[in-house]
Amino acid sequence: MSCNLFLLALVLGIGGTFHYGLQVSIINSPAEYIKSFIHKTWLKRYGSSPSEEIITLMWSFIVSIYSIGGLLGSMFAGYFLVRFGRKKAMLLTNIPALLSSVLMGLSRVCGSFEMLIIGRMVSGVTAGLALNIHVPYVGECSPQRLRGAIAITASTAIAIGKFVGFALGLREALGVDALWPVLMAANALPALIQLLTLPFFPDSPRYLLIDKKDKEGCIKAVKQLWGDGDHTAEIDDMMAEQKAINGEKAKSVCDLFRDRAVRWQLITLFLVSSCMQLIGVNVVYFYAYNVFVKAGIPPAQTRYVSLGVGITEIFTTVLCGFLIERAGRKALLWKSYTVMSLALGLLTVTLSLQDSFSWVPYCSVALIFTFIMSFGIVAGVICPLPTELFIQSYRPAAYVLSGATNWIQLFFLGLVFPFIVEGLGSFCFIIFFAYCLSMAVFVYLVMPETKGKTMLQIMEDFNRLNYRGKRSPSALWQNDSSVTVATRL
Length: 489
Description:
The protein is an all-alpha fold. The chain is built from 25 helices and no strands.
């Protein structure tokens, strides 16, 4: 296998999902400095000090508008994938990344917190586009036997982005009052790196053959990415998928809901992949600070423990890359969901007994790291799923739906989360425990395995669910193909 495929995965990660991880974690460190900047700017502009409610409102708006931008970006990702192709679409995502960096980096110099708000929204657009373009691009560039392992690099890039955001936010780096604009503009560097390196790589072979009908371009891209070996079987699989699509144009999100042929793929995508916010990882991170303090870690050192959490997530996604083509998607998913549900259930108990016994906080710490490791595996396995569940014509719409659902859930969970915690306390984990346990049962009983299968084989597995014993269109098409081959012989 040529090293070009792994270099492409690295380049896509740098300017792709890395943005999301970076911006999610980078906003926490400069919170007090940005609030002080809002106070000084308001006082200078209007001649009176703003109330605490106004400052809190402005800060909340800066944080939450990122989700609005992400939703907008994810909604346009499908159009970009179809209109410009995977490579050009990925390059275009770097334009809003650079624009957001300029706006946020110059906000203090210009004395405008509005530039900070707009910059955060534009960076959200970048993340929404990158999440839904990076994953199908890298998935479609991978051969069948490495499809899962290469697609997981998108999840690893998110974990690395979170870690880098935490590291840059330390006081020893950029987490000081004088440098917070530089910290907020940090996503300019990965955008520039990708703009300079991605043009040397080809577009997705599947896109070139199936969408552009450029067989020569597809073969050239395959050789550049995979080397000069015999890739006839892979190319034949792409041509079979092209024939199954039968010249149909890219489907819309409405087509996903109307078409019976993708009903169970849609259900699986929504329950397993689109509801990542219902796993409860944000709630675990919320309680982690108090748990670490109770375990005897000084409050000033909890930032460094957060780095340990980030390293754990990176390690787990890398480990998942080695396991996914051996254990399979289904086994890793249902086992990880089971471990997460057990961790959340036990965490509910240990948090309730936090002050009762001296050893309970250490149990909570162990449960938090167990949960994060299981979450890393689930996040990794979910990356290749939309690429594997849907054939080429449905894939862009599937990513749009998955991305939009995730951003909407992130926004509303951010709104109601404080009320959930206030009303239920540590018992709020029961909500997420129920989801994780339900997903473990669903994956184990319903979801077909996709490891080592062609797109048409996966489609036929789901057609057994979609048509319940009736002759599916793909089965009829395969029978016709068999008759044609037999006639030629």
